[in-house]
């Protein structure tokens, strides 16, 4: 049997007249792994352990009615206050910022007694996951632990159940030795020590190397650090093909066509997160309009940006900055019949796929990004030989860099140049790159990534 | 002959009735190296090349009246606009922030066309220094290039004068591979390539390792990277002894005694710089007062903070935050006869030495610091067996950590605990640590550091 452990499960539950209905969950891990596991690709049977996230999830759990097709699902009814402390203050406000290197270090973080309380909650939540897995797993089972919300589970589970084969996979980047030291030493050692007790996987060799150097720094040169592994995720071809055929996708394409007309389309698709570098993307676009007047009224920047983590001050503030930047740019450059930027905050895959189909340029310029699946989904769904402008700081660069135009996350001038280069690229060159991108972006599907984890587990 | 090249020279010039008078310059390098070179410790003769910084410096240079005792001084009358672009925008707003890791990366830096103009200025200024050295140096001379304002001089000078023995020394930390990539690749390669063309020295092995990893990252695994070296600076014993005997120092001690009475004294001495972590130091002090009411009105925090780089927005903003934090803390905790924090913005060594003499606790908690000479000067001048609370992120930690209490730069709670531990330490333990600190802090004088550079030059 294979056991998956992740913060968010493949289904959420909705109360109905006769019990609870399982609905497809959000989030990259769930949507990638869910269909695979229910199809039996991970072996005879699979168990998925995740947190009960909504009141209905909790109610379904308490009623013993957590049932989903083809998979055994175990939702944990965790202490709500502890869960929120761990999720908001440790996972998303601390570890996310350290792994992506986006703390304004002169001012944040500030580890105080409230942080210590949150850290204790993170330990408890991780322990609850480890306990559930230790209870569920049969002797010798494989357990795949997902992501930064569960960094302590590997060591906890290893010590409770030495018979299991375990792997941990980080969907984020990992930081190097100078940055892991930002954490209090006991916490940095606990995280590195836990991850080092099992094979730890990453989307890019760079993150694996940073992790190994950090583990060495915190644990000492004689410590036993299990070899890490690299296994990048790729989009599910069937899901892409199905989505492309949906009526909502066709409607979305027609809507966009009406808004954009025969102008060129630059597209970005991101959660609103400081790591995504949305502000500098707009600055580069502004610079393009300044230095290349021929593009005024000839190009539209479609910004599909969905708000996230809106309980955290950093995210509320960043979202405000993003919305202000859009307003300012539209006010300064827009005309009666041209909005330079169209902001679309919807978070649904069919209309995203519609935008993917017709972009001329896809801008993916993160400060750091574990992989960036958009950089693979876009080229696979695009039908105009669109050009990918990709930051080397995205894990996907390892696979796609050769066919992309590089955009340096901090270099406004260089990104503006790349956008112009992309917009003016000869059709032949576009076609050549796009064909190669399709091959590279489609080379790995979720099953490959899953198999790599299964093979790595020890 | 030995040639020193640094941005700031050992003397500044002041117009007087009959010509120009050389006055001791500010800055760590000048005050450490100046007396040595004029004493002949660097060999028969020494030449120092530096920038003319003031209108009087420039006037003295143009009048051919740059003369100083015991040393040949060459002040460069550089293009003023270029000099300021290079110094403010590249050295202090970019390289300083990258080497110390204190950019708020979601927002800064932003490399645009103005940055490129500043970079061209930095190249030109570096070239002017390299040209001057190439012209001055006799065949086979040793040339010691100082600090981050002159990162490109090594390669320029090496290529102009392959006969010279050259070393470069960084007084800052150096960043690792994940951070050097923040720079545009051509610039990161230019810097690493230049530094790698000569032995590059640092105050701490950690910075040397980070530099080597960064150079490897930017130049490739086959690149020829000259071995780096570690050579920490130490205070000049004679200068300390002389200063301790000055009447101004005695007056300073009496003044402090009057203000503080029999309360305990926590001291910090810093330029106001985000890397110094001044805000979190006050937060920790506040936490001490919250959790240890017995210290209220029993302790005074003497903050000797001198403003610096007040043409740069980051520094103006940070200074405001620092001053606000002090006001708030004094408003909240102060009483009629007790100011919890005394801010002293004077930047003169005799009254600083007075504060060193009588502290109970010296707080040195930088985010990152190349060395931090205060951590050595303090223990050597202190007469109360004061306790050093030192951040492991200061280069001086390598030498002093064993006798200091560690303060983690981001951990408010832990720093508050350390302050309390320092304030309550048994006299015997204090005496033991202080004695050992005096030995360690005094182990190396400027001459040792200079000799290490001379020996390393290649």
Explain what you see:
Two copies of one chain form a homodimer. The model of chain A has no long low-confidence stretch (mean pLDDT about 95). In chain A, the strands form three sheets. A seven-stranded parallel β-sheet of chain A has the order 5-4-1-6-7-8-9, sandwiched between helices. The two termini of chain A are about 15 Å apart. The first copy, chain A, has 18 helices and 15 strands. Chain A has helices at about 30-40, 55-60, 80-100, 115-135, 155-160, 175-180, 185-195, 205-220, 235-245, 245-260, 280-290, 315-335, 350-360, 375-380, 395-400, 410-425, 425-440, 445-455, and strands spanning about 1-5, 10-15, 20-25, 45-50, 70-75, 140-145, 165-170, 200, 230, 265-270, 300-305, 340-345, 360-365, 385-390, 405. Chain A has two domains: about 1-235 and about 445-455, Rossmann fold (3-Layer(aba) Sandwich); about 235-440, Glycogen Phosphorylase B (Rossmann fold, 3-Layer(aba) Sandwich). The interface of A and B includes residues 210, 318 and 408 of A.
Brief account:
2 copies of one chain form a homodimer. In chain A, 48% of the residues lie in helices and 16% in strands.
